[in-house]
Amino acid sequence: MMHFRSILAAGLTIASLALTCPASRACDSYYVLIFGSQRTPNRAKYTHTFATFVKVTDEGPGQCSFEAHTISWLPQTLDVRIYALLPECGANFELHDTLRFVLSEEERVSVWGPYQAEKELYDRAIEQIAWLEEGKVHYKAVDSGYPTWLASNCIHAVADINREALRLRVFSPGFGEVASYAVARRLTKWLIDPNTTHDWVLDMLDLRCYPLIRRDWERPEILKRSQFPR
Question: How much is the pTM?
Answer without folding.
Answer: 0.84
